[in-house]
Amino acid sequence: MRDILNDLEAGKFLSDPDPVRRAQIQMRTPLPKRFYKAVSVEADGDAFSVRLDGKPVRTPGKALLALPNEAAALIVAGEFEAQEKVIDPVSMPTLRLVNTAIDGVAADPQAVLEDILRFASSDLLCYRADAPQGLVERQNEHWDPVLDWARSDLGARFNLAEGVIHVEQPRESIAVLGAHLARRADPLRLAALHVMTSITGSALLALSVEAGRLGAEAAWTAAHVDEDWQAEQWGQDAEAMARRAQRKRDMLAAIGLLSALE
């Protein structure tokens, strides 16, 4: 199941997970040409399917590409419409996320839920720097409000540690998060939460975005406090920036899908 969940993060449906190497490969391997003229969304029972020239789109696992409401289907349709002469999967993060949800997460949502809880047991927000003071203050500024939200709204308290030494989290808190996630067990929502959790290293950030506690940019900034601090001190290379841009594209796609599912 972890292999399926990592389809998006690890780039199973891409030529390479590294965006720089992917660009190099794509220079040698031509992308498939756009073969359709019209993209549409049509009601299909209780769901909405994406169609190309009137024909339904299938996932890599041959399932019907159908979403629970028109707003979500229109996001995927928009990615198909945005393709010009060729079809570039890199520019279709929502489609890749939906494929993963339908072909993988739907088969075992409990495994996905448990994987998110594993992230929560060593959540990014719980591991703090002891110096320099500027980084300590920045972590406090961006991370403490999310932990306060988890405690006040969810009833989940988390222990903090300095450095990278593992700190055990209260079983009661993990159980509370498990119950919270169990009420969000549809494959698309779980897949989006898993992508956000994997990218940020924080289940709490993902859940706070889903709850409307944090906006997309605030969550992205919170997830990259340490990385941004290091970049300010030492600079950032082009490959790191390319990887970061790809991660942000995938995270924003997950947030956009969650919003459409409301």
Portion of residues in beta strands equals 5-15%
Number of strands: 6
Largest sheet: 4 strands, antiparallel
Secondary-structure element series: HHHEEEEHHHEHEHHHHHH
Radius of gyration in whole Å, from Cα? 19 Å
Which residues sit in consecutive blocks of at least 5 with pLDDT less than 50?
A: 1-5, 7-11
Bulk shape:
globular
State mean pLDDT (0 to 100 scale).
91
Structural class: alpha+beta
Terminus-to-terminus distance: 26 Å
Structure in words:
This protein is an alpha+beta fold. The protein is built from 13 helices and six strands. The strands form two sheets. Strands 1, 2, 3 and 4 form a four-stranded antiparallel beta sheet that branches. β5, α7 and β6 form a beta-alpha-beta unit. α6 packs antiparallel against α8 and α6 packs parallel to α9. The longest helix is centred in the C-terminal third of the chain and has 24 residues. The radius of gyration is 19 Å and the shape is globular.
Produce the secondary structure layout.
Elements: H1 2-5, H2 7-10, H3 19-28, E1 39-44, E2 47-52, E3 55-56, E4 66-67, H4 70-82, H5 93-103, H6 109-120, E5 127-128, H7 133-154, E6 161-162, H8 171-182, H9 187-200, H10 203-210, H11 216-223, H12 225-234, H13 238-261
Parallel strand pairs: 5-6
Antiparallel strand pairs: 1-2, 2-3, 2-4
Helix pairs in contact: 5-9, 6-8, 6-9, 9-10, 9-13, 10-11
